[in-house]
Amino acid sequence: MSVPVTKGLSRWSLEIAIVLMIVWGVNFSVTKIILDQVSVGALLFVRFLWMLLLGLCLLAWLYRGRFKASIPSRRDVPRFIAAGLIGHTAHVGLVTWGLHLSTPFSSSLVLTSGPLWTLLILAALGADRLRTPQVVGTAAAFLGILLFMSDKFSSGVLRAGLGDLVLLLAAGLFSLYTVVARPLTSRYGAPVLLGYTLLVGAPPVLVFTFPVFLAEPWRALPGTVWLWMFYAVTLSSFLGWLGWAWINQVRGVAKSAPLMYMMPPIAGVVSWITLGETFTWLKVTGALVTMAGVAWAQFGSGTGRTVAQADSG
Q1: Phi, psi dihedrals of residue 190, rounded to the nearest 5°
Q2: Domain regions of the chain by residue span
Q3: Helix/strand/coil (H, E, C) string of the chain?
Q4: CA-CA distance, 271 to 119, in Å (whole number)?
Q5: For the segment 44-75, what is each residue's pLDDT rounded down to a tens digit?
Q6: Which residues of the chain fall below pLDDT 50?
Q7: Which long-range contacts (C-beta less than 8 Å, at least 24 apart) are formed by 4-8?
Q8: How deeply is 186 buried, as exposed, middle or buried, from its count of CB atoms within 10 A (0-12, 13-18, 19+)?
Q9: Are the C-beta atoms of residues 79 and 144 closer than 8 Å to each other?
Q10: What Rg, from alpha-carbon coordinates, does the chain have?
Q11: How far apart are CA 248 and CA 256, in angstroms?
Q12: Are 64 and 184 in contact (CB under 8 A)?
């Protein structure tokens, strides 16, 4: 993405981020619908193969005639490897497995712990000075999530299930990926970041899931499943990862992370419409508290100050 385009779009970064949260919120139910008919391993193979091809094709088009210019410098190769293994191999694999074991609504709730992980990582690195509105807004949003989940945990933490525990780990990995990848986005842009991290992160998953892919009864799948996979892989995953990298570059990690709290209400509504999930008044209250926390974290500190980003390399 060129500098003029980035500058021209930067004033729309919040609106674009909100659209992305809607796309990702809907994708929880979409992925669950897919996983009802396709195994986890088969879906991961299709996702990573298609993502890798899209990423390399995008790089080839953007850098046609000068592809060597897209190759990362030697000093950044370790960071690309770490980002690929953390963000793609580990995070995506765990999210898909966790969603298979859990529900769309519960998955979205657990994954919104990501901003808290991000703030903790940035604070531990001493790379970001967090202002009071960000801390208060994030804490309020987290309390809203606790209200969401209160009935689920009322009989003990173990009722959360393996799926939610897996998703909690995945949320931490995504936050770590966000911090690791942030300087790479600044230096190379989102397409290069996505293309080369997929080149690192996709092969291990493809090798591991290839036998499952071959054993899958693909001919028995209805056509609608392929449409849902197009949404999940092309729109939500490929364009979503490009958009998230660009949003973090423009808005900053600490300001963009709290936006992920928008996903639970969106995922909840879509899951209620498509899968028939029901919600108590505690969950409705939790949604309102969550949205209030997001608004405060985003707008409570004004727009005139910037947030430093983590870059340990």
Answers
A1: -65, -40
A2: 3-299
A3: CCHHHHHHHHCCHHHHHHHHHHHHHHHHHHHHHHHCCCCHHHHHHHHHHHHHHHHHHHHHHHCCCCHHHHCCCHHHHHHHHHHHHHHHHHHHHHHHHHHHHCCHHHHHHHHCCHHHHHHHHHHHHCCCCCCHHHHHHHHHHHHHHHHHHHHHHCCCHHHHHHHHHHHHHHHHHHHHHHHHHHHHHHHHCHHHHHHHHHHHHHHHHHHHHHHHHHHCCHHHCCHHHHHHHHHHHHHHHHHHHHHHHHHHHHHCHHHHHHHHHHHHHHHHHHHHHHHCCCCCHHHHHHHHHHHHHHHHHHHCCCCCCCCCCCCCC
A4: 29
A5: 999 999 999 999 999 999 998 888 889 999 99
A6: 1-5, 158-159, 303-313
A7: 6/246, 6/249, 6/250
A8: middle
A9: no
A10: 19
A11: 6
A12: no
Residues with Cβ within 8 Å of 68's Cβ and at least 6 positions away in sequence, in order, are: none
**Cβ contact 225:34 at 8 Å:** yes
Q: Are 57 and 243 in contact (CB under 8 A)?
A: no
Kindly provide the b/e burial profile for residues 124-147, where b requires at least 16 CB atoms within 10 angstroms of the residue's own CB.
eeebbeebeebeebbebbbebbeb
Residue % of the chain over a pLDDT of 90:
38
* Backbone phi, psi, residue 71, to 5°: -70, 130
